[in-house]
Write a structure and sequence with these properties.
The complex is a heterodimer. By secondary structure, chain A is mostly helical. Chain A has helices spanning 2-16, 25-45, 50-61, 64-74, 81-110, 115-136, 146-163, 183-201, 206-225, 229-248, 256-291, 306-317, 331-334, 343-351, 353-376, 380-404, 422-440, 451-454; strands spanning 165-167, 170-174, 179-180, 461-464, 467-470. In chain A, strand 4 and strand 5 (467-470) form a beta hairpin. Chain B is globular, with a radius of gyration of 15 Å. The chains are: A mainly alpha, B alpha+beta.
């Protein structure tokens, strides 16, 4: 019998010799072995002797190296060219914005209008190298130790606090030539860690969900303590999206409706307590700062509402194409933060509303593509990761644009890929690198089965394919 | 039939999706169903089915899951996804249009 088994294994070796991606070998072998064994049993039951049955079954499979070559074509790395084209378009738009900022600030602040463009080129290069590097690495390894990533993010804040330098009331990491904010590095780490934890706890019950939520709340509190309200809000949005999708998909063994209701109810309660605490502590400041955006800062146009009033003026003066008309001062003279939080206003005021619409379309295409990659990802971790990255970018684009349009109060959120900010730019490209890796490894890794597929939750009443199923089992 | 393998390859995606429409199946089961339904017209090399299944899986038209069999071995079952259903619908319409056009030229009847 061992002799016959050897012949089957020999055939499987022949197939696998052609498949360069080794990770899928075990799965291929198991699937093909099952097929061969079943075929052999069939032949023996039909009266063939064992030796002949094995030989016949192998002949019936077809030439091993031919089958192997076809498998190899299926399981090979792929490059997401669509995403790379979108990255290139954003890089071009970013360069145009830096040229604008250079013209606005360069001469007066740095005596050199090339400052922004040169810096941008440097960060773009570093970011692209990192992005392509991460693309070639296997992202699924990050899933094994999510708490290390989490710890690294916490460590960044600790290092900044202990050894860093203070600027704008926040500690920065001091790298001798650069002062780097821990914030833009920590948020991606937290999000990847959260996606990893969610993937590791997948299939677990309520206590797993609680651990996940606790990890999330810890990182949000750290962001608030840093202090960065924007960072905390963006993490909250990302976590809420990942949690909603995982629970709604049935990735946790709990009642979906009730769990979501508890999560959202609890979240809303915590936010209310936080808001109540902060307003009770320094109420007038909060209302002054966050209420000022109402009606384009009309209540206090020379004080807290100044930026909103000016931003509104610039937008009303903007043309469909080309620069805004009839403004007495330049952008940088009148609008603080024109190069960061108000990058959208700068773009519209300089290039016209058509450019603004173009940026938003590009942003939507970019986020949409990441969501698509996530939907096609072959592992739960990959799809959560893409979901986190997509939500983070979408939240940043939206918060920044809506504040510029006077719909929301301004938080310290830059426009991804278009605002001034080197660390942020590199960190964003690194996240895109992870998404590219998810796409690249799509056909190279063994797929996670969804737990809902393997063990459907037994329910009394089920709704499926438009049919109501009542089960008495 | 000599051309069986080629005949299968050209339309493999449509045929596999069509087989899965009636319920989840594993590879061996699909080959048997194919032989029965086509009355042996597609005498394909059985190993070539699997790379096609994996390609369809990568494309998102079908998804797979492992289930234990009575014999104690695991089987990899495949099922249609929502996208797969849409693809099948499209391919079926194309095929019927093609088949009708060919039969108008060649004479004879098209069973769609």
């Amino acid at each position: 019998m061992a002799e016959l088994e050897k012949r089957v294994e020999g055939y499987l070796d022949e197939v696998c010799a052609q498949v360069r991606c080794r990770r899928v070998h075990a799965q291929l072998r198991e699937e093909l072995r099952g097929h061969l064994e079943e075929r052999i049993e069939g032949y023996i039951a039909a009266g063939m002797d064992a030796q002949q049955a094995v030989r016949q079954a192998i002949v019936q499979m077809g030439d091993g190296s031919q089958v192997g070559r076809e498998f190899n074509r299926t399981h090979r790395p792929q490059v997401d060219w669509r995403m790379l084209v979108l990255v290139a378009l954003f890089a071009a738009a970013g360069a145009a914005m830096m040229a604008v900022f250079g013209r606005e600030y360069g001469e007066t602040v740095f005596r050199n209008s090339g400052y922004f463009v040169v810096r941008f080129a440097l960060y773009l290069t570093i970011g692209l190298v990192l992005m392509l590097g991460l693309m070639c690495l296997d992202y699924s390894r990050l899933r094994k130790h999510p708490m290390w990533l989490y710890g690294a993010a916490v460590l960044l804040f600790v290092l900044a606090e202990v050894f860093g330098v203070y600027a704008n009331g926040r500690p920065y990491l001091d790298l001798r030539f650069f002062q780097v904010s821990p914030l833009p590095l920590a948020s991606p780490l937290f999000i990847v860690a959260f996606a990893g934890l969610a993937a590791n706890y997948r299939g677990g019950g309520v206590h797993c969900l609680c651990k996940l939520v606790a990890a999330g709340i810890g990182s949000i509190l750290l962001m608030l303590a840093y202090p960065s309200l924007a960072g905390a809000l963006i993490l909250l949005i990302c976590y809420a999206t990942i949690l909603t999708v995982t629970v709604a998909k049935g990735d946790f063994a709990c009642r979906r409706g009730i769990t979501l209701a508890v999560l959202y109810g609890g979240g809303a309660l915590l936010i209310l307590v936080f808001v109540g605490f902060v307003t009770g502590w320094k109420g007038s400041y909060v209302f002054q700062r966050f209420g000022a955006f109402l009606n384009f800062g009309a209540a206090d146009p020379r004080g807290a509402g100044y930026i909103y009033a000016i931003s509104h003026q610039w937008l009303t003066a903007s043309e469909l194409f080309g620069p805004a008309q009839g403004m007495a001062q330049s952008l940088s003279q009148s609008l603080p933060d024109a190069h960061r939080n108000f990058a959208f206003v700068s773009a519209v005021a300089t290039f016209g509303w058509a450019a603004g619409a173009g940026i938003l379309l590009l942003a939507a295409a970019f986020v949409g593509r990441i969501v698509q990659v996530g939907r096609r990802a072959n592992s739960a971790f990959g799809s959560y990761l893409c979901l986190g990255v997509a939500t983070m970018l979408a939240a940043e684009f939206l918060l920044c644009t809506l504040a510029s349009l006077g719909v929301l109060p301004m938080l310290d959120v830059g426009m991804p890929f278009l605002s001034y900010g080197g660390t942020e730019y590199v960190a964003h490209l690194a996240m895109v690198g992870l998404v590219l890796s998810v796409w690249r490894y799509n056909n190279l890794l063994q797929r996670d089965g969804s737990p809902a597929l393997e063990a459907p939750l037994k329910r009394f009443i089920q709704f499926e394919d438009g049919k109501l199923i009542v089960s008495f089992k | 039939m000599v051309a069986g393998n080629q005949l299968f390859k050209g339309n493999s995606a449509m045929l596999i999706l069509g087989l899965l429409e009636g319920g989840d199946k594993y590879g061996y089961q699909m080959i048997n169903a194919l032989a029965v339904r086509s009355e042996g017209a597609f005498d394909l090399k059985e190993g070539t089915l699997y790379p096609i299944l994996h390609a369809l899986e990568n494309r998102g038209s079908i998804e797979a899951y492992w289930l234990d069999s009575e014999a104690g071995r695991r089987r990899r079952y495949y099922r249609l996804t929502k996208d797969g259903r849409k693809e099948l619908q499209k391919r079926r319409e194309e095929w019927q249009a093609y088949c009708a056009a060919v039969s108008r030229v060649m004479g004879g009847e098209c069973l769609g």
